[in-house]
Amino acid sequence: MAGNFSFDQLKKAVSSGEIDTVLACIVDMQGRLAGKRFLAQYFVESAHDETHGCNYLLAADIDMEPVPGYKAASWSKGYGDFVMKPDLATLRRIPWLEKTALVICDVLDHHTHDDLPHSPRAILKKQVKRLSERGYIGYFASELEFYLFSETYDSARKKHWQSLDTASPYIGDYQIGITTKEEGVMRRLRNEMEAAGIPIENSKGEWGPGQEEINVRYAEAIDMADRHVILKNGAKEIAESEGKAISFMAKYNYGLAGNSSHIHNSLWSADGKTPLFYDRQAEWTLSTLGQRWAAGQLKYAKEFTWFLAPYINSYKRFQAGTFAPTKIMWSEDNRTAGFRLCGEGTKGIRMECRIGGADLNPYLAFAALIAAGLAGIDEKLELQKPFVGDAYQASQLPEIPKTLRDATETLANSEMLKQAFGDGVLEHYVHTARWEQFEYDRRITDWELHRGFERY
Predict the structure, then answer these.
(1) How confident is the model at residue 160 (pLDDT cuts 50, 70, 90)?
(2) What task does this protein carry out (predicted)?
């Protein structure tokens, strides 16, 4: 939970005029930053202790429409306040915004000041506490992919998001020459994130024209989730300041590769010094603990897929032959797999979950992976043998849910997640999933108009 800026440093920077704005942000259900811009002196004087926001922010859809049917917040309950409690350990300067600092806030109940159970950050904190009680630290890293466009968001909107100009005209996966054309945004993104306390290891071209991947150094789960959401928000802000636009949609174009968010995860000792997945004598050099963790994630993958793919569009990404997985299995260094073992034979051995898209909420995704991993440990599950070959063509393998509707129903029936998250929390997100499906089902799409306006 580390930023790069102490509260004492903030006070000095405010006094000297170096900082005049503080962004106090929660993370909403969609994984976006929401909050307030404080005149810095008022944040230092009082708001560093707490501020408040409307509780509809965790009961609204992506369009910010209040969604009926939530037990936690509703019109009948008056949409009251919750507490936004700044986690001062997350304070950081934001180099791409003038004289600005940012802090992540926990969301607390207005009356009890306990964590609000359905807050994404609280859900992850609960699972991290379960790890801590066993003497474990969970290290995570998410690889974000996105498309960079030679468009502004305004110009893309005016084109109805069709025939957009990507930053490069053809695929430049790993190609240095073509990605040089994109360095105006990508160099700033790497350097300014680093300056904000978010260490960027590298960026690269991906398997789509103008598609990028950026890799953040691994961290403890909550810190990594904080980095993830600040990176997504900042990437859009940096791109917009350069007259560009970025999209993290899982599948913005049927004919092009989707945007993933692969999640690397492993367990270490409480002091962070001993890798608990590495056993030089074990099969695949993966310890018994690591094998059970992985087996749990495989067993419960269908049940937690919604936390990796939360929208209608998310399921358009799962297409054979596109580097997006379609099957639930694991393999040794095989990119057709839903789960891939990385770092075999080294202390950095870890499991990579390849199911998630760049549209996921990292707090929810990490929490679900931890819950499944712990279930595998508790149930002493045995890890199946790794798959070898092209998983796309292996019809006997279990499939990732093909639609939001399928994923929602497996989520709703998950006893493991009910126990790990609590009945009320799971019900809250099942309701979120069903609302997304309901909203889609009653809309008329461009595809329907193209197909049926004249022909029906």
Answers:
(1) very high
(2) Catalyzes the ATP-dependent biosynthesis of glutamine from glutamate and ammonia.
